[in-house]
Design brief:
185 residues, hydrolase activity, AB_hydrolase_fold, 23% strand, Rossmann fold, Dienelactn_hydro
Length: 185
């Protein structure tokens, strides 16, 4: 991995293949698997674990969680404040799950939505609609920001050699972490 700026990696959704899995991992990595995952079955997660076990100096954590299915880490019920203390969406395709009309009654935990100015999947106008809904529930707490001059995927799929792209992604990551620290303390 040439991503030297990464301090720790967490892989919860395995959209990678074993053939492309980097054997030169240099940062601690966690892989969280699901017992009933049709895309990344437990046997494949075990193969990732074997690769990581061959590099004990890096540090790794691999666990297959029982009784859950594919996508378990990205699906949460924001109607259950006992399960979710705060939520953040920088990958707003998930907003489709919220069904804009139900959104006000579902939100019971603080939520942050980070949007991209040039996002064709979740355009700023849609992000603004969610912002208006969240603003009507000040008791819940919310933070919405549309980042200028960035496109869909700017927080995870950016050119590490582009200083502006790195700056925008790092700013979003910092704001996301600050949001969580504020909400879960």
């Amino acid at each position: 991995m040439k991503l030297l700026w990464i301090r720790i990696a967490s892989c919860q959704r395995h959209l990678f293949h074993l053939q492309r899995f980097p054997t030169d991992v240099k940062v601690p990595i966690a892989i969280l698997g699901a017992e009933n995952d049709f895309l990344t079955p437990p046997a494949l997660v075990k193969q990732f674990e074997e690769i990581l076990a061959s590099k004990p100096e890096v540090g790794s954590y691999v666990k297959i969680f029982p009784n859950v299915s594919h996508g378990w880490t990205t699906r949460y019920d924001i109607n259950d404040p006992e399960a979710v203390k705060a939520a953040e969406e920088a990958h707003k395709e998930m907003l489709d799950c919220f069904h804009l009309q139900r959104f006000p009654t579902d939100v019971k935990v603080p939520i942050a939505i980070l949007g991209a100015e040039n996002d064709f999947l979740t355009p700023p106008a849609l992000v603004k609609q969610f912002e208006e809904i969240l603003a009507s529930k000040p008791e819940v707490g919310s933070y919405v920001k549309i980042f200028p001059n960035v496109s869909h995927g700017w927080t995870t799929r950016y050119d590490i050699n582009d200083p502006e792209a790195v700056k925008a992604a790092e700013e979003a990551h910092k704001e996301m972490l600050d949001w969580f620290v504020t909400c879960v303390q």
